[in-house]
Write a structure and sequence with these properties.
alpha/beta, Rossmann fold, six-stranded mixed beta sheet, two-stranded antiparallel sheet
Length: about 250
């Protein structure tokens, strides 16, 4: 089914600099059935997502100086599970990644619910630690299908980047103070012709990261300029890309 990670082939060969400071982070890992889609190198999206999550543990603690990381798997509504049992250190996070089965078999994707519940929990933890240096990482290949929280059916025809109720609900959640940067990592057949749900995640990532980077404004209808500085550029990971070693978080 599905897992979250976005921006185009040109970025795949570049080193993406993240925040100047990052204290706590949450990774949302899509474990729905579509993540079993085969990639050009013979691996599945699920395989790559788990490997990227493990690599991110090292980067978060060794490069960013992170203090605590929480890793969730998500799929059907009500099944957001912390495999680290909350925020933890590097050694425990790595141990937990080796203990869990690396399978993606959930039947539906509660994407909006995972983002909203994960962001609320991350903000609450940051507040308890007296820091706003937080980031929510989303790895997915899925569309919103079954959320009971922050979900909703299409309500209006598409206007710009907002065509679905869950888009607005998630946007409002992420953009409330303090703005919570989202780093979207999206698995898809190609970097072109992406669905509108992924286009929304792209704009959400750029805008939330740009605000942390000093930009202003948070209109869901306003596409950020190409010049906007974002600590958290979205990345699309096409199934055709074989050399994934150059992909930064």
């Amino acid at each position: 089914m599905k897992t979250l990670i976005i921006y185009i082939t040109a970025l795949l060969a570049s080193n993406i600099s993240w925040a100047d400071r990052l204290d706590y982070a949450t990774i949302l890992l899509d474990t729905t059935g579509s993540m079993n889609t085969l990639r050009a190198d013979g691996s599945t999206r699920c395989d790559l997502a788990f490997q990227m999550t493990e690599d991110s543990i090292y980067e978060f603690f060794d490069d960013d100086g992170g203090q605590g990381l929480n890793i969730y798997t998500f799929g059907v509504s009500g099944n957001l599970v912390s495999i680290t049992n909350g925020f933890t250190d590097k050694i425990n996070a790595l141990n937990k990644m080796t203990e869990i089965p690396r399978v993606c078999n959930q039947s539906s994707t509660a994407l909006a619910e995972a983002i909203c519940v994960g962001s609320d929990e991350l903000r609450s933890h940051g507040n308890s630690k007296g820091t706003n240096y937080l980031t929510l990482f989303v790895m997915t290949d899925g569309k919103e299908l079954s959320s009971q929280v922050c979900g909703g059916r299409d309500t209006i025809e598409s206007t710009g980047y907002i065509s679905k109720q869950w888009h607005q609900s998630v946007w409002d959640n992420i953009m409330k103070e303090p703005v919570l940067p989202v780093a979207a990592r999206i698995f898809w057949p190609s970097a072109s012709e992406i669905p509108d749900d992924f286009e929304f995640l792209k704009v959400l990532s750029i805008t939330s990261g740009s605000i942390r980077g000093g930009a202003s404004g948070s209109s869901i209808q306003s596409k950020p300029s190409a010049e906007a500085r974002s600590y958290y550029p979205p990345i699309i990971i096409p199934d055709s890309v074989i050399d994934t070693k150059s992909i930064s978080r």
